[in-house]
Amino acid sequence: MEFIAKTINDLDQISKELLKLFGDNKVVLFNGEMGAGKTTLIKHLCKNLGISENTSSPTFSIVNEYRNNENKSIYHFDFYRIENEQEAMDFGYEDYFYSNSFCFIEWAEKIPNLIPQNHMVINIEIDNDNNRIISIAS
Ligand SMILES: Nc1ncnc2c1ncn2[C@@H]1O[C@H](COP(=O)(O)OP(=O)(O)OP(=O)(O)O)[C@@H](O)[C@H]1O
Ligand SMILES: [Mg+2]
User: Fold this and answer.
1) Are 97 and 116 in contact (CB under 8 A)?
2) Quick one: which of 54, 62, 103, 131 has the fewest CB in 10 Å?
């Protein structure tokens, strides 16, 4: 499935569609080059999961925890600066990934062996007209 965001304004509707496609998958990887729009899309998904602005509590530099209006946690990871998988093991990645809470992950390429089997992958590419091509696969 593929969506095209011509501007940031398209992300609200697209994130609603994506949430429907996640099914029971709670772990979602966001692939795409630097500046592709991974964090921006995650922010819109969080909004549609009932999270208001500025409710993020940074626990570690790698993970941000958000709580929605039902007090459910949503975790947002950015592994860009991680040196190796051991670092993720040291902070207890399993407690998050297998918590049945949403885990939205940027730069999962850094921890290829730690990704749970059940997950979705969202790929974001920028085309020549500066549109974001957002595709989802399981
Ligand atoms: N769908 C979109 N349409 C237009 N601009 C966008 C879109 N998504 C993101 N942007 C813009 O692109 C820039 C980078 O976005 P963002 O920080 O989300 O990228 P990223 O993929 O998370 O990058 P990084 O790999 O550095 O974390 C921001 O200025 C953002 O406003
Ligand atoms: Mg980012």
Assistant:
1) yes
2) 54
